[in-house]
Amino acid sequence: MGDKQKRPPDGTLDAWAYDYVLGSTLLGKLEPPAPPEDRALAPASRPLRLEAPGRPPELEVRSVGVRARRGGLRGEKARARLVHAFHHHELQAAELMCWALLAFPEAPAAFREGLVRIALDEVRHMGFYREHLTALGYSVGDFPVRDWFWERVPRVTSPAAFVAVMGMGFEGGNLDHAARFTERFRDVGDDLGARVQEQVGREEIAHVRFAVRWFEEFTGKADFETWARHLPAPLSPMVMRGKPVQRELRLRAGMSEDFVEEMVQWQPAPGS
Ligand SMILES: [Fe+2]
Ligand SMILES: [Fe+2]
Fold this sequence. Notes:
Helices cover 55% and strands 1% of the residues. The chain is built from nine helices and two strands; from the N terminus they run H-H-E-H-H-E-H-H-H-H-H.
């Protein structure tokens, strides 16, 4: 693997990020140590592109995921399975923020600072999901997981493409999904579940705004066409929107009216 030799110097933000991604204990994933105070200290001079995260033995990784079936959230087990998948999305998001920190050491300090702040938010979101999981009578490791985001996001080759995929793409889509699941949990009388969805959805607005702001900084504009060009194949806007698209939330996250409208209207080219 060779990665071991590349571990950044102790006490740096890079070492913290490296340990979070490659760590293989459940405790290390759920309750990482605080990042170093001096976050500007010695960013690496070369990109380090970690290929895969460490996985604790409690997590069984599979190559197929779980899908929420329509109307299938009445049972506690079905809800727990879904919440377990959401927990794993948050874990991957936290890890991928750390991944980007290591992959793009030349990015501005304020960008790196933002990645760390978001990674810590995602770790906090994992805590909300565990609270819900516990209330349903389950815990982390009770269902298999899939590293869906890890299979896709590391294809990006620039900070602009990273925020396009992760922030404007997947976290943007999450604004739509969280709103829909808030209703679905409420519909089956799961108030804790609805509250968690609502809070995570609300907090994700700032993550999307971070991405839009930096995408504009990196590319000079944040229109739909420029954004879509930054998605590495075979990713497309299709997997980055929910039904319905939450126009209002996306506007609050800094996307333009035109961007949101094109997101709603987007269709794959015939034959693709
Ligand atoms: Fe999150
Ligand atoms: Fe997020």
